[in-house]
Amino acid sequence: MSGRYRDGYGIPHLRAADHEALAFAQGQVTARDRAWQIEVERHRSQGSSAAFLGLEALAWDSFARRVRLDDTARRCHAALDPATAAWVGRYVDGVNAGLAAGAARAPEFAATGLSPGRWEPWTPLAIWLGHHVLFAGFPGKLWREHVIRRLGPGAARLFAVDGHVTSGSNGWLLAGERTDTGAALIAGDPHRFIEAPGIYQQIQLACPEYDVLGFAVPGVPGIAHFGHAGTVAWAITNASADYQDVYAERLRRDGDGVEAYGPQGWQPVHRHVETIEVAGGDPVEVEVIETERGPVISGGPEEQPEVTVSLRYPPRVTGDLGFAVLPALLRARTVGDLDAALDGWVEPVNVVLAADTGGGLLHRVAGRVPRRHADNGLRVVPAWEPAYAWQGWQPMPKRPVDQVAVMANERSISAGLGVEYAPPYRADRIRELLGERTDWRAEQMASVHTDTYLAAAGPLLELLADVDGLSAPAQALRDRLLRWDRRMAADSLDAARFADLRAAVVHALATHPALAELTAPPAHPEVFTPWLTLVPRIGYALPSLLRADLPGLDPAELVRAAAEQVATADDTRRWGERHRLAPWRALPDPAAPPGPELAGDHDCVLATSSIPGVTDLCGRGPAARYVWDLGRRENSRWVVPLGATGAGPHHDDQLPLWVRGELIEVTDDWHRLTEEHDD
């Protein structure tokens, strides 16, 4: 029996007669529930969002045009096998069938004057690219190039924390020996920008071939990252792999054309001009140039190679985005099926944990990482040197699971594939917590999700402990922080004072002569600014910078001065009063009240990230939480920060649960669901 059903939180549960009909139903319900969201993403993927969002969207649109997102999606779609192309096409048909009804429910369309458009067969691929083209953090190479040019080659890794990455997640797998039921549990939470509505869509997809529930990406068919198919379940984190390169390009004009200097000398390259419409402003022309390395994303023929760089990334090179993996995941019944399917995965490069009801366990990396010179991973490399060309692909590592496996973006299973990884604090803390018992149940996993212990506070507090010559108020502050339990609890005054001390040290470092050369960012496009601004880079790398050998830098003196500064401040707010949720909205509401108070911080397991030295607000954090129970799927749990839909009563009804760390029991019994009919 086919139909569209909902649970009490408005989460869609879909049944259809066959695989393609189910894809249509998924596209249609997504358009009805998330019309504004997916239309924004469609426009962002083709670089046309400034036409209704205005000047603030221009930087992204310019990047999307220059990096050729839409063209890459067309190229990858053209290479799909017929069955996958037909499946994606039916999803697109469903979106087009549901957009008008969805737009009528979303007030943002009227507010911006936007009319719902028509999706092309390749639009889901373009949306996937748009979400992940910056996921590997290639702008970090632009930053390291800036550091090397200003401070010398020895400073290349100065801002590593074991390297802080901008996208991460937690995930863990407990084999049956460590659970109360004797069946495996998989749990975790992907850390991404918190968006309204969210990047992950809770959904159940059922047809005679399969019955899978999990998190879909709105605008993309299937369930890619986190799913439970009854007999097998899977989850991912970012592998922190390095699979995108930036090349310094020498360009020159040749009449109406452009030439680039490569290993074979000067050669003509692709060049055309596109126009971006801007709401409330004049149209802007963008010159699109592509060399043999890839699209030019910064600079141009009139600028120096220092700022003129091209991007080389696997889907653009191969014309393959790995979309054939998505239907294969839905059909998987065992970890062997998943493992075989994931051999075709491309981007982003992920660490995968999976388990099945037969006792099978899987811990592997999936994706495509090129072989090339070590410097490619570190910095911008010269396009004209043949030594920096790609030389095939790296093998993807696998590792046996000994009862427990943890993935938290640290330097672990994917260590040979990247340059910068997340510090080990989250991974070590999760392992410590999981080691406390051997009878875990699904409902107990929230205690791990919500742990607020901040091990990353250690280096700063150790320095503070050794500082002498403090005034009486600063001495009292030191004593207080050394007694602090290092938990970033929302109701903690001590956590707030630690954040004050940390911010003061960050600002002191940012104005120190040793780093003065880095104050002015390199002249790259605005879209890369988050990676190229000194204060955030210091904030994330603070533990390693406090140990760095920099000329004239006395870390103890910096900490002493910061303690004196904080000790005389009169801010008495608790951590949660300052650490509030600030989700990204394509159309911000200036009248919106402050977000809810949050516990946690960026290096806690509860990774509600702030930017030390910039803001205590949280824009990045657990974009979903899940527990997959392989014993009984109905014991599984999930939650998202806001809700199942972009408008209506379910747009934020999960938020209070998410803030408290609670999880919703999964409903996969169709008799407990309510059938929904078209309006």
TrEMBL record:
PANTHER family associated with the record: ACYL-HOMOSERINE LACTONE ACYLASE QUIP, PEPTIDASE S45 PENICILLIN AMIDASE
Keywords assigned by UniProt, alphabetized: Hydrolase, Zymogen
Family, as annotated: Belongs to the peptidase S45 family.
Superkingdom classification of source: Bacteria
Organism whose genome encodes this protein: Micromonospora fiedleri
Matches recorded under InterPro entries: Ntn_hydrolases_N, Pen/GL7ACA/AHL_acylase, Penicillin_amidase_A-knob, Penicillin_amidase_dom1, Penicillin_amidase_N_B-knob, S45
Protein name: Penicillin acylase family protein
